[in-house]
Design brief:
Helix content: 25-40%
Structural class: alpha/beta
Bound molecules: pyridoxal-5'-phosphate
Distance between the termini: 36 Å
Number of domains: 2
CATH class of the largest domain: Alpha Beta
Largest sheet: 7 strands, mixed
Strand content: 15-25%
Radius of gyration: 22 Å
């Protein structure tokens, strides 16, 4: 699918054609996005808002048009509900801080799940430490799906917020977030969805989901690094205090005190990444032009094909085998004596053959502890990957095993 739009993919690595299967970590960027960055810096770069001169007005319009487009992209009611951040991690830290200041008191409870990325764990742990609140964890069932019965039992009058991943960055499982939101709302509890791994792979509609907050990162969506968004329902954002102080987030400043700007600027202190927002809007339009449902179908087909090929390998253990996955697949291989072949060894040998995969705990150490493994090998797909690349990956994996065993 549109592979020719991605110049980086034509290169050789260690003398072999690159097979890039590390898209869950970050995706490659199409020419239209690279061109957008060059265009911005060569033709209209100027600091935005407050500027009366022409370039500043053009830059401001590009930034705000990008916000409007991204609001539509995720199905938000209004662009006021889209706050630009540095990425998913900053969005979650921002929410933990602001929501924590407004609503969390000693003894309150926050719920996350057992398969979260560290960025949806640590900010909540820090908040709980600050406020003497308690972090509760939705456990996994044997098939590695979230245990929704246990989740229902965790909810109680002290529960103030639920924050869960839409798609697991390790297992690729699509969590039943609609049901989680329905159950939480029945108890009057708001829900934050970590969309870092869903926004690149699935059509996202925050209004249809009815989530209260949603976070994602541009760099996993064919756009540049350093920008992301925190979506929040307006009625929630209006109740939260600012995150950082500085320029842009204020209405008036005097020695007597400061009054704050309206949404979304109240949460955006300092010069925003207006080139990043513009390039992200170009990437989002690019995804739309490829048809996001078609991207999802293509990636799910590649994931299923890779899983089927991997199943032929002796000693393979695929996590969440047989379950639908959004472009992410994790596995380990055990030798004839049942000993784990270390993912690092496989990763290094695959790299020597031009195949880029990710190995390790994938910033999900608690999940690794549950699975009782040090890490996995993870392959993850994007719209430009092909069945031929899956075949080359499998051939390289078999060669690696020949060397190791
Ligand atoms: N949440 C999930 C599920 C992720 O996969 C990632 C990144 O891999 C993050 C959060 C953090 O994203 P970022 O590093 O872009 O802030």
């Amino acid at each position: 699918m549109h592979r020719e739009d991605f110049p980086i993919l034509t290169q050789q690595v260690h003398g072999k054609p690159l097979v890039y299967l590390d898209n869950a970590a970050t995706s490659q960027k199409p020419l239209c996005v690279l061109d957008a960055i060059t265009e911005a810096y060569s033709t209209w770069n100027a600091n935005i808002h407050r500027g009366t001169h022409h370039l500043s007005q053009v830059a401001t319009a590009k930034h705000e048009e990008a916000r409007t487009l991204l609001a539509q992209f995720i199905g938000a009611n209004s662009s006021r509900e889209v706050l630009f951040t540095r990425g998913t991690t900053e969005g979650l830290n921002m929410l933990a801080f602001c929501f924590g200041e407004a609503f969390i008191r000693e003894g309150d409870e926050i719920i996350v799940s057992a398969l979260e990325h560290h960025s949806n764990i640590v900010p909540w742990q820090m908040l709980c430490q600050r406020k003497q609140a308690v972090l509760k964890v939705i456990p996994l069932r044997d098939d590695l799906k979230l245990d929704l019965e246990a989740f229902s039992q965790l909810l109680n009058p002290r529960t103030k917020l639920v924050s869960v991943a839409h798609v697991s960055n390790v297992l690729g499982i699509i969590n039943p977030v609609e049901e989680i939101i329905r159950i939480a709302h029945a108890h009057g509890v708001p829900v934050c969805i970590d969309g870092a791994q869903s926004a690149p792979h699935l059509p996202v509609d925050v209004r249809a989901l009815d989530c209260d907050f949603f976070v994602c990162s541009a760099h996993k969506m064919y756009a540049p690094t350093g920008i992301g968004l925190l979506y929040g329902k307006e009625q929630w954002l209006n109740q939260l205090p600012p995150y950082q102080g500085g320029g842009e987030m204020i209405q008036h400043v005097s020695w007597q005190g400061t009054t704050y700007n309206e949404l979304p600027y109240r949460f955006e202190a300092g010069t925003p990444d207006y080139v990043g927002s513009y390039a992200w809007s170009v990437a989002a339009r690019y995804m739309q032009s490829c048809n996001i449902a078609s991207i999802a179908a293509h990636e799910q087909e590649l994931t299923a094909y890779a899983e089927q090929q991997l199943q032929q390998i002796a000693g393979i253990r695929i996590y969440a085998a047989g379950q639908p996955k959004a472009g992410v697949l994790s596995f380990n291989i055990y030798d004839g004596a049942g000993k784990l072949i270390h993912p690092f060894d496989l990763g290094a040998l695959l790299d020597q053959q031009g195949v880029a995969v990710r190995i390790g705990h994938h910033c999900a150490e608690p999940l690794m502890t549950t699975l009782q493994i040090p890490g996995t090998v993870r392959v993850s797909f994007a719209l430009y990957n092909t069945r031929d690349e899956v075949d080359r990956f499998i051939t390289a994996l078999r060669r690696s095993l020949d060397i190791l065993l």
